[in-house]
Write a structure and sequence with these properties.
alpha+beta, 8-stranded antiparallel beta sheet
């Protein structure tokens, strides 16, 4: 009996220590929905500061531009997706695949994939090790790609 309780507690602790659900923080705080541009894009090559691959518009294809009047709805749906900050494991050195690209009025860019995020300032890209629930992220991309 004691052994099974110990194993259950050990499993619970390991789950808690591996990653933690955290609210996602945007690059410039809460975005002003009237001054940002939101797009669903495909990052055709790996991009990241540690991968030696800079941000490159030529390797980014636009899947869908979110209409400005849908920005608030899109961000509301996005905020419902759980994001995680892993405590252990290697950091995310690059991102690739389908992404949400938010372009701010000052030209800064935020790239959000289900497996990592990146910010681009003055052409320099910096990755963050934040992941999202894959199913919920894919559903969001599908929902807004088809509209």
């Amino acid at each position: 009996m004691k052994k099974s309780i110990f194993i259950a507690v050990l499993c619970l602790l390991s789950v808690l220590l591996v990653s933690c659900t955290v609210p996602y923080s945007f690059m410039h705080g809460e975005p002003d929905i009237d001054t940002i541009k939101i797009e669903i894009v495909n990052l055709e090559t790996e991009m990241g500061n540690h991968a030696g691959s800079p941000y490159n518009e030529e390797n980014t294809s636009v899947i869908k531009v979110i209409e400005t009047d849908k920005n608030e709805e899109f961000l509301s749906d996005f905020k419902k997706i759980k994001s995680y900050q892993p405590y252990f494991g290697s950091r995310i050195d690059s991102i690739t695949g389908e992404a949400i690209r938010i372009t701010y009025a000052n030209g800064d860019i935020e790239l959000i994939t289900h497996h990592g995020t990146a910010t681009v300032t003055n052409g320099e890209i910096w990755n963050q090790t934040i992941t999202f629930d894959l199913d919920a992220f894919s559903e969001l991309i599908d929902k807004y790609s088809k509209n």
